[in-house]
Amino acid sequence: MISPIERKKVSEQVLDELKRMIKDKEFPPNSKLPSENELAGMFGVSRSPIREALRVLQAGGMVESRQGGGSYVREVNLANMLDPVTFDFIHIDQVYDLLEMRTVVETEAASFAAMRRSEDELEAIRKALDLFAEKMEDETSVGSEADFAFHHEIVKASGNRFLLQSVEGLRGLYERALTFSLKQNVGLARKRQQIYEEHVKIYEAIERQDEKAAAYYMKRHLLNARIKLGDKRINPLNESMD
């Protein structure tokens, strides 16, 4: 029986080859990878599939970006191997899909939270925001757990148990995708401040019970995340709400 021909995206072919080269120690642990331009020349492709493959390797924990520029091969030890992200790589398209789903769910959740939240729920959102602020001030911190807590408290305040279950059921994916997204900003104070300010606007809209503004700022926040990560399904000129 003839097996069907497998058609792979160029970025997936680049990813497979880079994984092989890392495994075979052609790029040994703690070594700096060639630049995007150099890798593009090596593989005979544009920079776009190189960038996409590197993002997947970063999400999978095999490669890390360091302050000052450049991507480095991480040394995998037993502690790393216990992390499911090391084995279950996140493809960038999955991050886009999850963010798209979050845009649908959390925009409405923010609106409902503004209408329905109690003072105790508002205080819980505020505490999560304060914790996120602390993480953003520490430029070495990723802050994904604090980010999830903020969004989770908003969905809880929506008063819709099915929205809450949809978020809690995907908690592992949420946190891994948040880690992947926020890692792009480690060491970048201006970008971290911008993300924090987006959270503040969401909180303030919920505090004053302005459901339209809460939905607007939540959608703006999540669309900006998708644009920054390179989701080509969004036209930045039409969709960016800055």
> Would you report the number of β strands?
2
Overall spatial form:
elongated
Which CATH architecture of the largest domain? Up-down Bundle
- The CATH topology annotation of the largest domain reads as Four Helix Bundle (Hemerythrin (Met), subunit A)
The fourth-level CATH homologous superfamily of the largest domain is: GntR ligand-binding domain-like
**Residues in helices, as a percent range:** 55-70%
CATH C-level of the largest domain: Mainly Alpha
- Order of neighbouring strands in the sheet with most strands: 1-2
Tell me what portion of residues adopts beta-strand conformation. Answer: under 5%
Q: Could you report the average pLDDT, rounded to the nearest whole number?
A: 81
Class derived from helix and strand content: mainly alpha
Question: Can you summarize the main beta sheet?
Answer: 2 strands, antiparallel
Q: What is the number of helices? A: 13
Question: How many domains is the backbone divided into?
Answer: 2
What sequence of helices (H) and strands (E) makes up the elements?
Answer: HHHEEHHHHHHHHHH
Low-confidence stretches: 78-89
InterPro entries: GntR_C (IPR011711), TF_FadR/GntR_C (IPR008920), Tscrpt_reg_HTH_GntR (IPR000524), WH-like_DNA-bd_sf (IPR036388), WH_DNA-bd_sf (IPR036390)
Domain HTH gntR-type: 8-76
GO molecular function: DNA binding; DNA-binding transcription factor activity
Keywords: DNA-binding, Transcription, Transcription regulation
